[in-house]
Amino acid sequence: MSRPGGRRVLALALPLLLAGCSGIQSALDPRGPQADAIATLAWVLFIGAALIFVAVMAMAVAGFIWPDQLSRVNPRRFMVGGGVVFTSSVLVVLTVYSTWVGSRVSDASDVNIIGAGTRIQPDEDRLVIEAVGYMWWWEFRYLGTPHGDVVLANEVHIPVGRPVEFRLKAADVIHSFWIPSLHGKRDMIPGHNNLIVMQAEKPGLLRGQCAEFCGDQHTLMSFFVMAHEPEEFEDWLAAQARPAREPDTPELQRGAEVFLEQGCGACHVVRGLSDGPLQAVGQLGPDLTHVGSRLSLGAGAMPNGVGPLGGWIANAQGIKPGNRMPNFDRLPSEDLTAVARYLESLK
After folding, report:
1. Closest alpha carbon to 164 in 143, 185, 150, 186
2. Residues in CB range of 315: below 8 A, 6 or more apart
3. Mean pLDDT across 106-133
4. What single-letter DSSP state applies at residue 263?
5. Where are the beta strands (DSSP E) in 144-193?
6. How many CA atoms lie within 13 A of 56 on its CB side?
7. Rounded distance, CA 232 to CA 162, Å?
8. Which has the minimum average pLDDT: 104-108, 115-119, 253-257?
9. Which of 32, 129, 334, 347 has a Cα-to-Cα distance from 164 of 20 to 30 A?
10. SS3 for 57?
11. Side-chain half-sphere CA neighbours of 165 within 13 A
12. How far apart are CA 134 and CA 117, in angstroms?
């Protein structure tokens, strides 16, 4: 490859390589004290490894250029110094440092949590959220809020500057809960409760992901994280605690009727929606009380909106095969559209 050609390839490839270092799902773009400590550890290890690699390559090149001078070096001293003393010293230092960083970001036994320069005390100010991994979607339940029950699916909102305790559970298969910009990953195992505490320092949109293969749809097992300023978060929490809005147009009313008539309420909750004996109180699928306010459908499978909602209802198995949502492709198009518009109105 010619040099101009090589430079062009490098110029095209470099932005792609650097793009992985930032963004809403990057461990190298920390937005909290725990992730900051982990990113610092990663950079220390990377830079140290790079320096050692360069030093070894320099000695190899020097051996070709100045063989007579290097032949005067005592082989035994070189082997002991470079192969034993240096290697052992580096490994000991890195082991102590990585253990120290791990202890600072660990929240085991609910003890004090210390981030990179930030000390987080376990106290009553901690927001507690139960996160449950299903096959294949996420549920987030806010515990002990002054507003009552707040349940979300595939999306979680947190306040800036306040510790958030995620109590992790898995319903059916093993997952691994990971928000790279806020903390390391933590396993979610059926029958076993786990816990992780993290804190966002800046408002903004982040993204989480299952970090362990959980089945055919593992790649479509993500969720969004929105960090709010404290007052904005309290307003959002109060709004989410309210029941679903009443359908106020004939089409939305028809959509709510079809939703109940088709038995969707046997799997989903829509708080406040009922038509006599028909109610939406099911526990098998995501809570849809405010589904229209969410960013995505199907755990990041597609953006939210009337069109994607209609497509998901009619062909959920085609979009995400193996999930628990059956296809409702038998619905007349006007009924399908009415249900999609009704769900999109739930904000």
Report:
1. 143
2. 327, 329
3. 63
4. T
5. 150-153, 155-159, 164-170, 175-178, 186-188
6. 10
7. 13
8. 115-119
9. 347
10. helix
11. 22
12. 36
Q: What is the arithmetic mean of pLDDT over 147-156?
A: 91
Residue with tokens 């070894």: 56
What token pair was written down for 154? Answer: 């595939």
CB 36 within 8 A of CB 115: yes
Nearest one of 183, 207, 204, 208 to 195, comparing CA atoms = 183
- SS3 assignment, position 180: coil
Q: Tell which wins on pLDDT, 4 or 127.
A: 127
Helix (H) / strand (E) containing 231: helix 230-241
Q: Return the CA Rg of the chain.
A: 26
Give the torsion through C-alpha atoms of 235, 238, 240, 244, to 10 deg. -120
3-state secondary structure of 183: coil
Element (H, E) at 120: strand 119-120
pLDDT mean across residues, the chain: 88
- Residue 60, beta-bridge partner list: none
Task: Quote the pLDDT of residue 115.
Answer: 42
Helix (H) or strand (E) holding 339: helix 333-344
Q: How many residues does the chain have?
A: 347
Name the band, by pLDDT with cuts 50, 70 and 90, for residue 16. low
Mean pLDDT for 237-260 is 94
Amino acid at site 201: E
Q: Compute the distance between CA of residue 312 and CA of residue 328 in angstroms, rounded to an integer.
A: 9
Percent helix, strand, coil in the chain, to 5, is 40, 25, 35
What Cα–Cα distance (Å) separates residue 43 from each residue in 74, 315, 346? 35, 45, 44
In degrees and rounded to multiples of 5, residue 316 shows phi and psi of -60, -35
